[in-house]
Amino acid sequence: MVNTAIQEIPVDLEQLLQPWVDGEVPVAGLNERLFAALCRPAHQQPVWPDRHRARAVCDALRRLPPITLPGEVDRLRDLLALVSRGEAFLLQGGDCAETFAQNTSRHVQGTTNLLRQLGLMLSYGARKPVVKVARLAGQYAKPRSRAADGDGLPSYRGDIVNAAERSHQRRTPDPNRMLEAYRQSTTTMNLLRALTSPGGADLREVHDWNENWLRHSRARDRFAPLCDGVKHSLDFMSAHARLGPMPDSPVFTSHEAMLLDYERALTRVFNRGPDAQLYDLSGHFLWIGERTRQPHGAHIAFAAILANPIGVKLGPSATPDDVEYYLKLLNPDNVPGRLTLITRMGAGRIRRVLPPILERVAASGSAVIWQCDPMHGNTRSVGGIKTRDFDDIVDEVQGFFEVHRAVGTIPGGIHLELTGEDVTECVGGSQRITAADLGARYDSACDPRLNREQALELGCLIAEMLSG
Ligand code: PEP
Ligand code: MN
């Protein structure tokens, strides 16, 4: 695990003990647990030069409406319970880093519709419903391996903290950006809700998009049988049941719960008395990243007191002991759907590193979701540009299924960095993007994403793996 300098996050006890929400009474016990969590060492936090302004921004955020609702969060957890039992499959994907400048309707619609296209394919392959979760409406904070670039400039930490532009002034953490991230997240959420509301796209329309893609794809011959299979199934369903509309299922939101000032400010108490629970309503699903999963750090302790479904990224240095500790701390009551372990080992390591971890968890009888992130263990630098090879991504997914079949555990889902746009950030796929093409349309603010073509090809391959 990469260790950057530990920074105490500024904790203001007085403020914590004030009512959190208009008219809401502080709940005994929860405040103390939150305080204790936030007193732990927190990695990757910015130092706001203007502490007074940072406090004023957090105060303002605490008074603003939440972005999601507890009922929606509970509904996602119930759907994830199906995933943990192998009765549904989890698809999560979107940008590595959302940016304020690229948060356009074209972009949000591109990601949302791509997830729906993939969801339909995977559902056909797995013969199960697919739970869709976008990395959208809040994925603005980035952990960094180094605090500064080679030339001494502070690292870009995501649009919620500083600007990517290479100047000292623009790289200085600015707390006002938390308000802008909130505003942009609500806008994205609004569009996402509209796009996926009843009366929005129907499954047959989603299939039309897939057919349209395939017609122009170089992978046409390879995947035509799969696409035909989906079409026959939809035709059969509608003919057999004389179905009218076949509405698609919802798309939930997620992001890395990294910037604790922001996450804490959007955390709300729900219910009173002994039923009181804390929900981080900045999104539905929140995950803790590879760089902030220190077992005794603030991020894991913060996640432990939330009612949201939580993910934890597991890199190649993760041990069975680490994982056992997460199970005890993050899901002591063994609630199905509460905890997702997101493995991102790298294609060359997954077959060796994952089995002992799976065996330990299987022996404990814990209900967890195993999700494969085939992106973050396969990043490499070509001429100073970060990229990933399509074949490595496929190989890690394949390894994930192999290892789960061998151990007898459930491969529950997939976690991708992708965009609906025609970028050139990952190499390979049937478009045969090479290192020389990377400069052409490299728009990611952080890690390289699969473009629409690559994502749909990968979706077809995973659908085939699922149909086994
Ligand atoms: C990410 O998901 O963008 C990320 C930074 O992942 P990880 O924490 O696994 O490196
Ligand atoms: Mn990333």
Please give the structural blueprint.
Blueprint: E1 6-7, H1 13-16, H2 30-38, E2 42-43, H3 51-63, H4 70-84, E3 89-94, H5 105-126, E4 130-135, H6 168-171, H7 176-195, H8 203-215, H9 220-241, E5 251-256, H10 260-265, E6 267-270, E7 277-280, E8 285-288, H11 298-304, E9 310-314, H12 320-330, E10 339-343, H13 350-364, E11 369-372, E12 379-382, E13 385-388, H14 390-407, E14 411-417, H15 452-467
Parallel strand pairs: 3-4, 3-14, 4-5, 5-8, 8-9, 9-10, 10-11, 11-14
Antiparallel strand pairs: 1-2, 6-7, 12-13
Bound molecules: phosphoenolpyruvate (PEP) and manganese (II) ion (MN).
The site of manganese (II) ion has 5 residues, from loops.
Query: Overall pLDDT, averaged?
Result: 92
**Terminal Cα span:** 34 Å
Bound molecules: phosphoenolpyruvate, manganese (II) ion
Shape: globular
Spatial order of strands in the largest sheet? 3-4-5-8-9-10-11-14
Helix content: 40-55%
Number of helices: 15
Tell me what portion of residues adopts beta-strand conformation. Answer: 5-15%
- Describe the largest sheet: 8 strands, parallel, barrel
Decide which structural class fits the backbone: alpha/beta
Total strands: 14
Uncertain spans: 1-25
Using only C-alpha atoms, the radius of gyration works out to 22 Å
Order of helices and strands: EHHEHHEHEHHHHEHEEEHEHEHEEEHEH
